[in-house]
Write a structure and sequence with these properties.
The chain is α+β, with helices and mostly antiparallel strands. It has 5 helices and 7 strands, in the order H-H-E-E-H-E-E-H-E-E-E-H. The longest helix has 17 residues.
Length: about 150
């Protein structure tokens, strides 16, 4: 099913590729419906464990009208939040991996189902990214909620 704004989302995503037209051509013909895109040009990705990421995404929904794009891997074991370029190199946090300059991200075509990675929040095509300060606040709240449920580790 197509999602409104898919074309704008595709245009925005492929603009991060070294050769946007070659990326678009490959992406549209790839039977898996995914492309490898470089992080660090238009965005970085902060990768959180699934439970923390799901709860943080819920909290973000209370803090902002719309977070930036968010990916989930197969089984939702990890969530990737798209944040401004340069964030990954400055991020200090236990259990959070950063993908920035020099790394590549598997990205599904917006609006198409894939067998693995999928969009939880599809790019809006306008370049909206998650504010790292809000993400950090959401993560703290998510960790506090987990600790309150007895899910925290000492």
């Amino acid at each position: 099913m197509a999602i409104p704004g898919d074309k704008a989302a595709v245009d925005w995503l492929v603009s991060a590729a070294p050769d946007p037209e070659a990326c678009r051509w490959e992406w549209e013909r790839n039977p898996l419906g995914v492309a490898l895109l470089p992080a660090g040009r238009r965005w970085d990705v902060l990768i959180l464990p699934g439970d923390l990421g799901q709860t943080a995404l819920g909290v973000l929904g209370l803090l902002t009208d719309r977070p930036g794009p968010v990916l989930a891997d197969f089984g939702d074991t990890r969530l990737g939040f798209f944040v401004p370029a340069g964030t990954a190199s400055r991020w200090i946090g236990t259990g959070v991996r950063g993908a920035g300059r020099g790394t590549w991200i598997v990205v599904p075509y917006p609006g198409r189902a894939t067998g693995g990675v999928r969009w939880l929040v599809v790019p809006d095509g306008q370049g909206t990214l998650t504010d790292p300060v809000l993400l950090e606040l959401a993560m703290h709240e998510a960790a506090a909620r987990a600790a309150g449920r007895g899910g925290g580790k000492s």
